[in-house]
Amino acid sequence: MKKTILTMIATLGLVLAQAGHAEEAGYAWDKAPNQTNDLRSLQNGAKLFVNYCIGCHSAAFMRYNRLGDIGLSEAQIKSNLLFSTDKVGETMKAAIDPKQAKDWFGANPPDLTVIARSRSGHGGTGPDYLYTFLRTFYRDDARPTGWNNLAFPNVGMPNPLWQLQGQRRPIYEEREQHGHKTQVLAGWEQLTPGTMSPLQYEQAVGDLVNYLQWMGEPAANTRIRVGVGVLIFLGIFTLIAWRLNAAYWRAVR
Fold first, then answer.
1. What is the mean pLDDT of residues 232-248?
2. Contact 204, 48 (CB under 8 A)
3. CATH no. for residue 119?
4. Per DSSP, what are the bridge partners of residue 54?
5. DSSP 154-179
6. Which of the four pLDDT bands, split at 50, 70 and 90, describes residue 87?
7. Is residue 71 part of a domain?
């Protein structure tokens, strides 16, 4: 029994050491904008999602008409975000055939409705991961798709926004850390230009991530707003109750 316990402790220590090494060697996530109350950003993010993501990824738990919560009218949704066969009350389903997707990418692309809530980890929040992931694609001819990613090494999907960002490759330099020489990312080399400048692309990815974060919980802003109102009410009510209680017992005495 004692030997079994010691073996379990040793195994746990090895797992934790390996996890710590993986965390140290992993790419640090950047901080996402986290602006889910910016309607203009959410509207642009919804447009980017429909134009560049929904071809492969569904959002099966989100209906098009729910986009009215971010300031879009039904006419704007129909004109700008709907395909000809969709109705405004339908869910946001991908156009790709699941069998073809599995043949092309090795697996069916995941649903993105709650992707921002499911990708949190030691590096930060789910939006932080998505913000980093969409900004760290690079050309890699050794991969079947021709693309790789620093936040998700050997990812099966290509860069969906490559036309906006252009094609890049990372530049590494050798540095000494903790007594060991390691390759550290020093910057990026732009191989072909995109239709957006680097700053415009950063803002576009921020808008898309804001939308994905909002889509994971559309009622979050309302919940926070109501919660703040309830706390203010309780604070005022507590003050009034305290003064009434003092006045009552003063009269009794």
1. 91
2. yes
3. 1.10.760.10
4. none
5. T-SS--TTHHHHEEEEEEEEEEEETT
6. confident
7. yes
Place of tokens 């090795």: 106
Nearest 10 degrees: Cα torsion 114, 120, 126, 132: -140
Is residue 104 pLDDT above 90, yes or no? no
Cβ atoms 212, 116 nearer than 8 A: yes
Q: How does pLDDT run across 170-207, given as a tens digit for each residue?
A: 998 888 777 788 888 889 999 999 999 999 999 999 99
Between CA 225 and CA 132 the distance in angstroms is: 29
Higher confidence at residue 216 or residue 180? 216
Residue 160 pLDDT: 95
Amino acid at 135: R
Distances (CA, A) of 68 to 39, 75, 78, 221: 11, 10, 11, 14
Cβ atoms of 168 and 139 within 8 Å: the answer is yes
Q: pTM of this prediction?
A: 0.80
> Can you tell me which residue has the tokens 């060991």?
180
The tally of domains found in the chain comes to 1
Tell me, yes or no, whether 142 lies in a domain: yes
Distance CA 25, CA 27 (A): 7
Within a domain: 227:
yes
Q: In which domain, by residue range, is 67 found?
A: 29-242
Residue 16 lies in a domain: no
Backbone angles phi, psi at 184, to 5 degrees: -120, 140
Nearest CA-CA partner of 119 in 213, 207, 223, 201? 213
Nearest Cα to 77, choosing from 101, 85, 87? 87
